[in-house]
Amino acid sequence: MLKSRRGCRWVLSRHGFTLVELLVVIAIIGVLVGLLLPAVQAAREAARRMSCSNNIKNNALAMHNYHDTYQVFPSVGYDKFGVNLDTHSWVARILPYIEQSSLYETLDFNVRVNGGTANRPYRLAELPSMQCPSESGTLGESNNLSWAHRRGSYAVNMGNTNYGQHNPNNWDGVWTYTFGGAPFSVNKEKAFRDVLDGTSNTLLMSEVPINQNDQGWQGMYAVTIYTSGAGFTTYLSPNTSGSVDGGRRCWTPSDYSPRNIPCHGGGNWWSATFAAMSLHPGGVQAALCDGSVRFVAETIDLQTWRAASTTRGGEVVDF
Fold it and tell me: Which residues form the DUF1559 domain (predicted)?
């Protein structure tokens, strides 16, 4: 109550929100946030996908530069020591072409990648161009530095059957069509001259998943194919959740269950077939042998996907 100079009294009015009005405003803000959040998340994923595309583009160009120097692509790896292909993968060979010359100088190609300390700096190196921003991979076997590895997101094309690149006449049960050639193989170095289907019709590399379980080895790119980190095949569709007899490189179900990575334990390295996979909604990034990059939908016709991986199938692929 206030009193005027003339002795009159009046009430000073105070206006504010009622509880109901406040709740309505909060509800409206919540609805707006709910509408905007998917758009923000989609924009962030689009940015991550673009960055991933740039990474795979840089790796493809590094392959081209390596080919310009040596007139061949690097092999996926060499069965040099007779111990599960425990040798340097193609990633080691292109290090000078992805601004990692100093790391390349630390490599010892005369000893195994795993075990000991000789190649530990390489195994533990975080290579920005090897990890898709949509991934959040960790070290594998992180409690044992003798075997610890960084994870990577990119693998090279090993064709339409299995890692051993077998034909039906020398493999039992799984393959029902002929291996059509591939730009990468074990113990072999291929070249552009081997890509008879044309560089714009043939896959060079794509994405593979990174396992978040320390004991799961998927995505470890430093060594060759027995860890499923260096190569992929197109026997299965991109982002598949399917299975196939013959094995994909994992040791126990706990190795892959955190990411639902399709895997069938057992078998030898040559029986493995590991699908291209990513965390991008709807498909995977892929580079062609001509260096171009495109996003391949996971709904792509399987026969088209398989044809895109062969080098001598005679197909013209329309992505």
Answer: 41-303
